[in-house]
Amino acid sequence: MSLSRRAVLTLAGNRLVSRFVTRYGMRLGASRFVAGETLGQAIDTVKSLNRDGLLVTLDHLGESVTTREEALEATQSAIDIFDAIAESGVDSNVSVKLTQLGLDIDYEFCLENMERIALKAKESENFVRIDMEDSPRVKATIGIFKTLLKKVGKEHIGLVIQSYLYRSESDVKDLGELGVNLRIVKGAYKEPKEVAYPDKGDVDENYKRLVAMHLKNGCYTAVATHDEKIIEWTKSFVKENHIPKDLYEFQMLYGVRGGLQRQLAEEGYKVRVYTPYGKDWYPYFTRRIAERPANALFILKNLVRD
Fold it and tell me: What is the pLDDT of residues 201-221, one digit of tens each?
């Protein structure tokens, strides 16, 4: 992890900084990365993205809940997204984090909540992706995913794999045998060198290795990156290996590289925009700043201007 990224994550954990940004952040620039605090605002954003030829994944922000009541509320929020998608007719699926559904409270309780969401995705003829969190939760996350995969099928549930973890190559090989839909990301959590590649070059090479492995296995792959070198590599790889366009898509974050998103869509590639919303946006926002500390300049400019 770079010194600047580590510094951002450390600073973000400061209580005074957290309190200030939570109070003023949306007005000062966090709205660039978060599509509002309500589902209605998020649906309006999806409509706009769809008009530009972009697909969407909606995520109601929140993680590491501490009570069953909070987890049940988060579960219902995810279910409500599917209803809002159906009612509005937008082109979007849904992403969830298991710690938001009570993973740290009780595994079986979390599984029950995630099952409700997965069954709703199937009922709605839609799709839900389980996001991956920090390394101590990877095993449990994969366990819940595999359990629900048997119940709803790969057409309705998918998973995320992080290329900065040493274990990910083995996980992709294992999951590839099940033919599942994977979203490949580099990873945004603060991890020790014992479990994650500390060097960016190694993370990038592993990223390409995982994408290539999953595509060659004939499995649907979401290439989630803003790295133009990896995007160009992917274009070349799929062309050279005759990978059909209905077997992969590019994914990027809302508020990041919007011009590139539209350019890829105009070139005929499927592009999906991960679009978060909700009041509990602070942890997500700080990870976006940590991934690219230059984003902090955007906030500082708004602070000075304000």
Answer: 999 999 999 999 999 999 999
Where in the sequence numbering do the catalytic residues fall? 131, 183
User: Structure pTM?
Assistant: 0.86
Torsion of CA 183, 188, 193, 194, to 10 degrees: -50
Q: What is the C-alpha separation between 200 and 202, in angstroms, rounded?
A: 5
Q: Which of 258, 281, 301, 289 is nearest to 26 (CA)?
A: 281
Per the DSSP assignment, residues forming a β-bridge with 221 are 182, 248
* Per-residue pLDDT tens digits for 35-87: 988 999 999 999 999 999 999 999 999 877 999 999 999 999 999 999 999 99
Which DSSP string corresponds to 229-272?
HHHHHHHHHHHHTT--GGGEEEEEETTSSHHHHHHHHHTT--EE
Phi, psi of 172 (to 5 degrees): -65, -40
Question: Are residues 275 and 56 in contact, defined by beta-carbon separation less than 8 angstroms?
Answer: yes
Nearest Cα neighbor of 210 from 141, 163, 178, 158 is 163
Q: Report the amino acid identity of residue 139.
A: K
The residues facing 251 across adjacent strands are: 224, 272
